[in-house]
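User: ok so my PI wants both of these folded by tonight, can you help

Assistant: No problem, let's get them done. Here's the first:
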Amino acid sequence: MNMRGKTVLITGSTDGVGRYVATRLAAEGADVLIHGRSAERAKALIDEIVKAGHAAPTFYQADLSSMAGTRELAAAVIRDHKRLDVLVSNAGIGSQNDGPQRQESRDGHELRFAVNYLSGFLLVHLLLPLLKAAAPSRIVNVASLGQHPIDFDDVMITKGYNGSRAYAQSKLSQIMFTIDLAEELKSDRITVNALHPATYMNTTMVRAGGITPMSTVEQGGAAILHLVEGDDVAARSGLFFNGMNEARANPQAYDADARRRLRTLSLELTGLSS
């Protein structure tokens, strides 16, 4: 895909791999919409892109740990744009951010499930009119190889909480959503794919978890860009990739009943069912 003039929203793009992807797409002439919580980091990114001779991206400040913050982000993008060619759902938190203890979002949901999954679920649905207006368009969900099956009797992990399990459950939820949404949108010329960009990239999230980085943001960014603009995936949807290669997710991702239960719960928690 020629990215010149294409409108691309990348959540979590003032740092880490999202920042790299935003920089690359700006250099290719895309109209880049960046999102983050820090105006200071956003300004540094914008200054870097402009200094390199490219158009300044538009910054949207929002806290995706709340449904209200997610709705505010969607409303701002809808206010400013009539179409959206690509949505990269990249914002997230790791297993140890702000400590190993169980945390809840402002809406009372387990924090990793809320930020890594529910916010993206809600944002995509709110922005679907813009994505449909730009079709053929693409949705890329940045997930992980770290996946844990959902216990539907305790989705919020109120018993035996473990940060790694919470993170892995949220990432599998993203992949299950990817498969469902791809089926839902197959007649709308919108592709939806998920990926594990690279293992333990050198990002703030990885370092905050006390993990020694094993790969670079450039490696992970290349995998994301492949799904954003690669011609070989232009008509492929509902897939999970490990880096550049198609892969298999946790078996629960292919369980239609589990996906139905997750979809019903997600619609209820985000207020979309009404």
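One down. Here's the second:
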Amino acid sequence: MITGIKGTRFRRAAAVTVTTGAVLAAGAFGAAPAGAVTTPTIAAAGGYVMNNGTAQTLYTKAADTQRSTGSTTKIMTAKVVLSQPNLNLDAKVTIQKAYSDYIVANTASSAHLIVGDKVTVRQLLYGLMLPSGCDAAYALADKFGSGSTRAARVKSFIGKMNTTARSLGMTKTKFDSFDGIGNGNNYSTPRDLTKLASSAMKSTTFRTVVKTKSYTAKTVTKTGSIRTMAAWTNTNTLLSSYSGTIGVKTGSGPEAKYCLVFAATRNGKTIIGTVLASTSITQRATDATKLLNYGFAR
């Protein structure tokens, strides 16, 4: 018994000696190694950042906690559309009254699409991702879902969103809407949404859309004339405020609070990440900026 205690004391003493040596080797009294970067503090409830080239995790904060995603859901809407076989981006979709009624009923963000106008799939993707148009999301779900009724087509499209999530290994994600206006069962995590964005950014069309600051669509009216729509402005303020930003998508809502999936490239290095449930529009951009700076410094 006494031998055991002595042995324990010896091991502790040895540990102290090793620790002291390590401190001295590192520099006076544990000074941070040269080039060390301080981990940022963010207001968002959850965050995740990775190096898009290597998939190396650079930052986590409640990265696997499920939360409402708001309109960051639309990244998946766009991915499902762009994954369709033999996709014709110039195919025209006629805007239905149901899409407009949906916007009014939900006080939803809108691309202000006009009932009866013919709008191309490409234009709908801009209307989806820049002003975060829930009417554009509805039109795409109706167009690319399968079924004899609109309800069946929407259900089918949401099914494709969930199938795609599973194929990407988004194990903590579920969608019950095409736009993020969920029915209590629409959630993801910072890690899963970053995976999704990384995959979506492999599409040239997606990359082109999400880095666009402003887009003006010319649609075809019921009478066949050309309507020049009011310009759609991208809700992602990082495109103007953070050099090298290449996307991706904002989100907000009573439950989701303020979300942002973001990506930027500097000197050939792309950092991609997500913040969920930040405290304001300004703060989510501040959070993302801190995380991007941290990612590039790593």
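The longest strand covers residues 257-266. Residues 2-26 form the longest helix (25 residues). Good luck tonight!
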